[in-house]
């Protein structure tokens, strides 16, 4: 199973970055930075939600119906002429469901790290959320996943499994952002102070910001 950051480095990932950039008007490099942070954060939030039987069942229903991976079958069509408003509306609903009251804080933190305003980050995440759900749906279908444990293993595996505590802590810090900006310094210190360059989320994020 490929990790979510491996996906972003693939040909499909580059198509997604280019398409989202074209749709939102954000620079490709900044779009890439946002997606590199936002997709793991969304998956970590889903992992939290799927820790309860009800949350896992809800996610499983979504992945076996609307978000079964078919959105990935025609990415060029998805982005050609701009993403359909229905996709953006769907993305907004996904973000509200997954992040809830933490959505604004998450977007603020990611925006400050990527050098974009929170509204642009929100637009990028709205387009990316249904695509991420499609990626998870495709994995679920190909691997015949059905149980709460299956879903947790899928999310954990794509996040890097037993990844470094620092990387997991980063995701938790961003998810616990309350929108007042105070967490930004904590996250910046965690990413830029003491993280070794290397594989995984911490290394990639550190590399993205030139540290």
Count every beta strand, where a strand is a DSSP E run of 2 or more residues. 0
Overall 3D form: globular
Helices and strands, in N-to-C order? Answer: HHHHHHHHHHHH
SS summary, helix count: 12
**Main structural class:** mainly alpha
The description of the largest β-sheet is:
none
What is the CA–CA distance across the termini? 29 Å
How would you state the average pLDDT, rounded?
A: 81
What Rg, in angstroms, do the CA atoms define?
16 Å
Contiguous low-pLDDT stretches (5 residues minimum) are 190-211
Quick gist of this model?
With 211 residues, the protein is mostly helical.
Task: Please tell me about this protein's structure.
The protein is mainly α. The chain contains 12 helices and no strands. The protein has helices at residues 4-9, 11-24, 28-49, 53-64, 75-79, 85-99, 103-114, 118-142, 148-158, 165-175, 182-192, 200-208. Residues 190-211 have low confidence and may be disordered.
What distinguishing features does this structure have?
12 helices; mainly alpha; 211 residues
């Amino acid at each position: 199973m490929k990790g979510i950051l491996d996906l972003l480095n693939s040909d499909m990932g580059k198509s997604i970055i280019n398409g989202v950039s074209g749709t939102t008007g954000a620079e490709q490099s900044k779009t890439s930075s946002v997606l590199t942070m936002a997709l793991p954060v969304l998956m970590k939030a889903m992992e939290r939600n799927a820790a309860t039987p009800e949350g896992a069942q809800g996610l499983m229903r979504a992945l076996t119906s609307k978000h079964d991976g078919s959105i990935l079958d025609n990415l060029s069509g998805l982005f050609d002429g701009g993403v359909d408003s229905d996709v953006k509306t769907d993305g907004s609903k996904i973000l509200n469901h997954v992040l809830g009251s933490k959505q604004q804080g998450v977007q603020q933190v990611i925006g400050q790290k990527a050098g974009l305003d929170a509204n642009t980050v929100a637009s990028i995440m709205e387009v990316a959320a249904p695509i991420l759900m499609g990626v998870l749906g495709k994995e679920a279908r190909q691997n015949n996943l059905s149980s709460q444990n299956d879903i947790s293993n899928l999310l954990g595996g794509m996040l890097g499994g037993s990844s470094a505590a620092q990387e997991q802590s980063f995701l938790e810090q961003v998810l616990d952002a309350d929108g007042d900006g105070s967490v930004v310094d904590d996250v910046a210190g965690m990413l830029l102070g003491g993280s070794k360059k290397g594989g995984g989320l911490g290394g990639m994020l550190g590399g993205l910001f030139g540290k």
